[in-house]
Amino acid sequence: MASMTTLSRPAGRRSTMRSSPRLDRLTGWLANYSIDILRISLGVVFLAFGAVKFVPDASPAQPLVERTLDTLTLGIVSGPNALLLTAVAESFIGITLVTGKLLRSGLAVLAGSMVGIMSPLVLFFTDMFPSDGPTLEAQYVFKDIVLIAAGLVIAARALGAPHGADDRATRGG
Fold first, then answer.
1. Can you give the pLDDT at residue 102?
2. pLDDT tens digits, residue range 17-68?
3. CA 46 to the chain's CA centroid
4. What pTM value is reported for the model?
5. Which residues contact 116 (CB under 8 A, 6 or more apart)?
6. Which residues are CB-neighbours of 27 under 8 A, at least 6 positions away?
7. Domain extents in the chain
8. Cys staple from 167: which of 65, 135, 143, 162, with CB 3.0 to 4.6 Å?
9. CA torsion 80→83→88→90, rounded to 10°?
């Protein structure tokens, strides 16, 4: 399997972009706060998705959630229990991301949830991709790729990746 490599950035200012005090301040602000903003906004999304699942028949994802968990658990968790478990998990993820408390636990639940969230693409492929193109459910699942990417960025920070404008040296850039 090929490994991913990153190109190192030359030390100092980029030759393709003029630097200015305003741009430097903006860059510093983004480096210091953008991942926290991403964490909180992802938390709000998960909290909203979870909250709506506490109300029967309110979530358009309800049939997919119930079918997926029923299949993944071999019928042990199905119907309203599948929806409740998903609502609790998504709400917990959302609360941990918004507050920053128990963040590693929330990220662990998020990692497990992502397996379940993406599994319909494998479990129900022919249903999600009939001959006339992807269904609305398939599109719903596909957008979760962005949530996974956001979760990875947040997990990297939570697990100790450097952050801030002055951390390029520690990344080899």
1. 96
2. 677 888 888 888 888 899 999 999 999 999 999 999 999 889 888 999 999 9
3. 9
4. 0.79
5. 68, 69, 72, 86
6. 165
7. 33-164
8. 162
9. -170
